[in-house]
């Protein structure tokens, strides 16, 4: 399992790129690659949790290189408590 942590700046180009990015996230979730994704409540960034290595996704989705979006961290997570099946 891998986690991507994003940090957002005030650059408005991020908001212009967001709808296409969210469509892509829905498709990744439907395909079983993306477990969950969402912004922090304060709007400062977001967290995405992938089943497998998201390296390809980081190069294929232009959102990750859009001004206003900073990929702060990509880390492998080793959960000791699994997500419930209804998550």
Automatic annotation (TrEMBL):
Xref: InterPro entries: Dimeric_a/b-barrel (IPR011008)
Entry protein name: YCII-related domain-containing protein
Lineage, top ranks: Bacteria, Bacillati, Actinomycetota, Actinomycetes, Pseudonocardiales
